[in-house]
Write a structure and sequence with these properties.
By secondary structure, the chain is an alpha/beta fold. The chain has a single domain (about 10-185), classed as Rossmann fold (3-Layer(aba) Sandwich). Helices cover about 45% and strands about 15% of the residues. The protein contains five helices and six strands, in the order E-H-E-H-E-H-E-H-E-H-E. It has helices at about 15-30, 40-50, 70-80, 105-130, 160-175, and strands at about 10, 30-35, 60-65, 90, 140-145, 185. The protein has a six-stranded parallel sheet with strand order 3-2-1-4-5-6, sandwiched between helices. Strand 4 (about 90), helix 4 and strand 5 (about 140-145) form a beta-alpha-beta unit. It is globular and about 50 Å long. The mean pLDDT is about 95.
Length: about 190
Amino acid sequence: MSSNEGKVILVVGGACGMGAATVCELYRQGAKLVVLDLNEEAWEELVEDEELEDGPGTIDFVGGDVCDASVRQQAIDLVREKYGTLDSLLYIAGVLDLMCPAHKTDDELYDYVMDVNVNSCFRMCRDCLPLLWDHEGLPANIVIVGSVGGQVGSSAGAAYITSKHAVLGLARNLAHSYRFRNVRAA
C-alpha cells in the first residue's frame, strides 16, 4: 500500500512540468486528486498521454487562473463537497520573470510574478487551512514548491527571487503556526 493511497490531495499547478509528474505519481499511488491549472490544453494532453483513466487514483480537474478568487474557491469547494477533508495541499504553480533585473522590471511583470507565486499561494493556503487543521491521524501537509532562488539572490530575476524568498517565509510561518493543529508545512 502506498502512503498516498486514498489520500485527498489538492494540486495547484498540475498540468505540466513538475506538477504533471507529481500528479501522475500520486494518481498511480491511488490518491484522490483535485488539480487546479490554467493550462487546460496541457492538462488534456497529459491525461491522454499518461492514460490517467481507470487507474487506482481519481482525478478531478478545475481549469482556471489561480489568481482568480472564484477559481480557487471552486477547487476548494470541490474538495469540501466531494471529500469533506483535505490531506495535502501542494502549491506547485509558478511563473518566471525571464531573468529581468530590478531596473527593467515594470509594475506589470512584478505584480504578475508576485500574484501567481506569492499572493495566490498565500490565499490558497489560508483558505484551505480549515480543511487541513485538526487532521485525524498523521498530520495534514502543505507543500509549497520553492526554488534555490528562495535561498540565494542570483539565480533569476528580481521579481522571481523576491517571490521565492516570500514563499519560503510563508512555509516556515505555516509550519510554526499550525504545528499544534496537526498540520505540517514545507
